[in-house]
Amino acid sequence: MIENDKYISVTRLTRYIRQMLESDRALQEVWLKGEISNFKRHSRGHLYLTLKDKNARIRAVMFASSARHLNFEPKDGMKVLVHGSISLYEPYGEYQIYIRQMEQDGLGRLFLAYEALKRKLQTEGLFEEAHKKVIPPVAYEIGIITSPTGAAVRDLFTTIKRRFPAARITLFPVLVQGADAAPSIASAITRANQMRTLDLLIVGRGGGSIEDLWAFNEEIVARAIFQSRLPVISAVGHETDFTIADFVADKRAPTPTAAGEFAVPDVRELERRIDQLFTRIHRALQNKLIREKERLSRLNKSYAFRYPGQLVLQKAQEHDRLFERMKRAGSRLTSQYGDRLNVLDRLLEKDRPNELIARAHKILSDRTAQLIRSADHYRKTRQSAYEHMVLQLNALSPLKVMARGYSIVYDQDKHLVRSVKDVSPGDPLSVRLRDGNIDCQIWGIEEAEKNE
Description:
It is built from 14 helices and 13 strands.
């Protein structure tokens, strides 16, 4: 016969296992990495998913209170790093991890750091065009900050010397990969700015993975470029690689070769432009010479050069004629304005301004005195009327009546009691006297006889 007291319920068992899991401190601070599958977002904001690797899987839950802090959208197939605690979901008897924190694994973390720094520097204004320095059209002294053994430095040297052999290059060898690369690059930018002979800086390296290029995504390099006195061309990676240094630099070159092309002009193009300018100047001088010769020829054939004495006599005669015209015109104007001045003088004598002003002052004084008298009479009249009305109000005021010993009676609803019929025994009353109120109650009512 089976003894029933040896058996426990499934509920008790699962609860016991849950308590054991939750009492294990190591299981309450679990750090896992895995791939997301079966991802679902509940309408209330909770996240349900499975974390898996090649050989195992575990169910996971991230409640809305924690999920709201995520800066990315989880998806199936995404590799993540999670931090949480292990417990058991009793209804199904399944153990699972309750996630408190989640972030993307591998390149995802680098991408998040890249985006975070990009947002920070953009907010501070380090990417604004207003801060960009002008790249000189011809740089004779160029500083190159890169690895001395990489392909980038060879491309830069070859391009610059091929295009503009007169340019002089100063190499600042640095580390471009690894933990010490960013401080090495920033220090070289500072040293280059201390050299007063340089016209331009090129900072970069050849292509690579995001980890290889990461030194150019460091804040110390970005701020060194921003604080540089010298214009900076960034030449990091291939055409599709964008780093923080590219956004801060005064100009971004998609490749090191392009950086060399931006830094110096092509000497052959300069020679071609010089030849064109020389041809244009020569043609302009030829045209100018032809025009001036034609002008000289016209002047030599002109009347002034052929008969200068007669021209002087003609000009003297014309001068005399114009002088006489001016004298006659001056006399006419003098006569006209003299007559007009006489007319104005007579008008002024007739209507002297001083007399007009004196009359206006007298009228103003009389009107002012009249206005003052009218205002004073009006004030006295209104004051007398006001005092009369005050006397009438005092005569009719119930307070005056109450001062002689009378009172006013109100019922409990603040209505005036005019008759004994308005109240009943037991009703409360309020009696208003001259100097205050009395609260009282009716004990009895006695009506006056009709013949009284």
